[in-house]
Amino acid sequence: MMGQERGRLAVSLDMLTEALILVGQHGVYCPSARNPSVPSLDIQAVLAQINGAKELVGSVMEQLKERKP
């Protein structure tokens, strides 16, 4: 429906979302020693990287959408 490239990016976006959910659940069980209300620093770094990747995939999808006539 969206074309092969955008379809693959959409699946990648879904996979990144699933990874975010899994890492977020792990963060609940591995709180920071300094501040138990937030995940540990390594979990925060992974979450930030996955969110950045999701933004990148989303922006590429938008560029492909604009390019298509």
Folded structure, characterized:
The protein has two helices and no strands. The model has no long low-confidence stretch (mean pLDDT 87). The longest helix is centred in the C-terminal third of the chain and has 27 residues, at 41-67. The chain has helices at 4-29, 41-67. Helices cover 77% and strands 0% of the residues. It has one domain (13-67). Helix 1 runs antiparallel to helix 2. With 69 residues, the protein is mostly helical.
**What is the CA–CA distance across the termini?**
15 Å
* Oligomeric category: single chain
Q: Write the H/E string, N to C.
A: HH
Structural class by secondary-structure content: mainly alpha
Total number of helices: 2
Work out the count of structural domains: 1
Morphology: elongated
Strand fraction equals: under 5%
Radius of gyration, CA atoms, in whole angstroms: 16 Å
**What's the number of extended β-strand segments?**
0
| Mean pLDDT over all positions | 87
Roughly how much helix do the residues carry, as a percent range? over 70%
Largest sheet report: none
In short:
It is built from two helices and no strands.
Layout of SSEs?
Elements: H1 4-29, H2 41-67
Q: What are the defining features of this structure?
A:
69 residues, mainly alpha, 0% strand, elongated
